[in-house]
Sequence to fold (160 residues):
Amino acid sequence: ERAKGKTHELGKAEFETEKRQYTILDAPGHKNFVPEMMCGAAQAEAAIMVISARKGEFEAGFDKGGQTREHSILVKTLGVQALVVGVNKMDEVEWSQERFDEIRTKYSQYLKTVGFTDNDVTYVPISGLHGINFKTRLSADVCPWYSGPTLLEALDAIDV
Fold:
C-alpha cells in the first residue's frame, strides 16, 4: 500500500487514553471507499483527516474534485463537529513550517465554506511511518516551531 501511496483496506481499531476510549474506523481516501467512510463518519463524534504534506499529494486530494474536499463536506454533513487534521509525512518535507502553514491556510479557508470554524479544527504535524507526534511530543530538535498537542492530546481535548 505504501509503495502505491494508497490505502486499500478498511480498518478498525480500539484504544484508550487516560481520558477516553476510542474506536477508529480507518477508511481509505479513494473514491471507491466513500460509502465506508460515510458509515464511519455517521457514527463519529469527531474525525481525523490525514493529509499528506508531500508536494503534489496534498494538491491532488485538495484541488477541484479531490477526495479531501469531498470527505470534508461529508463529515460535516453527517454531523461531525470537531476535526483533527494530521498533516502526515512531515518527515519527508523535513518538518517544514512553511509547508505545514501552506496546508493549514488553504484547508482552513475551505473548511470554513463547509461550516467548520477555526475552533472546530486542530492541526497536528505527524509522521505516520515513524509514529512521530502521536503520543509523545515532538522534540524541539526535530521540529522547533511546533509546540502544540500530539495527535492523542488533540483528540482528548475535544469536548464531546
Remarks:
- The radius of gyration is 15 Å.
- The chain has a mean pLDDT of 87.
- The chain is about 30% helix and 20% strand.
- The longest strand covers residues 46-52.
